[in-house]
Amino acid sequence: MTHIPLTVPKSAQQIYKKNLKRVTKGTGKLLLFAGDQKIEHLNKDFYGEHIHPDDNTPEHLFRIAQQANIGCFAAQHGLIAQYGKDYSDIPYLVKLNSKTGLGVGDPVSLTLVDFEDVLALQDAGINVVGVGYTLYLGSEHEALMLQEIGRIVAEAHSHGLLVVVWMYPRGAGVPDEKHPDIIAGAAGVACALGADFVKVNQPQINKEDVPNELHQAVLAAGRTGVVVSGGSPKEPGPFLHLVYEQLQAGTRGVAVGRNIHQRSFDEAVRMCNALSQLVYEGADTHQAWLTYSE
After folding, report:
1. Which pLDDT value is given to residue 204?
2. Which CATH architecture has domain 10-293?
3. How far, in Å, CA of 169 to CA of 167, rounded?
4. Per-residue pLDDT averaged across 221-234, rounded?
């Protein structure tokens, strides 16, 4: 039985259930292909040594998202507006805020567009299933971002859209942003905000104990599904095994960008399909590796 938050009115419940089923394929789990790094990381993630030339152009992201077996593709409103007409059948998660790494001081990232702009994409025939927002918990600007995401959750749910919060503890008041206690606390905040999924980083205290370090966050998140960031580029085999271990800890998916799009188109699609097996089919590392190696 699908859990529907009270913030979803009866008039929007069928839309909400349809969107949830679409991105989770009926499993309650999510494979999110993250394509929001054009602002977040500028061009260093798309051009350079060890990055396939296919990744030099933004359309590479859309070609992957259209061909691969993913739950949804996250990108900023403007990027979707540029390419979405040619790839309208992709299930999109509109990333509402972003910032570059060029600023100084505690991080702050506020909305780039109004919610009406998201609805305008739908009116234009784009398959919008949800919205995303990055919250820098612990920043001196935390209150501003909390106010925004609180309103966004209510607004998105009123239209039957899902909400994924990128939850990154970061700022002068955060001594260790990847400590398991901090990650768990951040996951709990996402639940208190009413988010459907929360994207967190893998805790990094004991790399040999991935399941236990993440399990605390899974418990703290309650009915909000924990999806783990793919992080920096890794070798395919170890990366697939890491995702497998994360899922064994009770997480409900992964949000992967660089470990997908920095590869050639063919390899990126195979990586997505291997991850899809892990997330949606409960495959083990060996089965996923066979899919990737086809």
Report:
1. 80
2. Alpha-Beta Barrel (3.20)
3. 7
4. 97
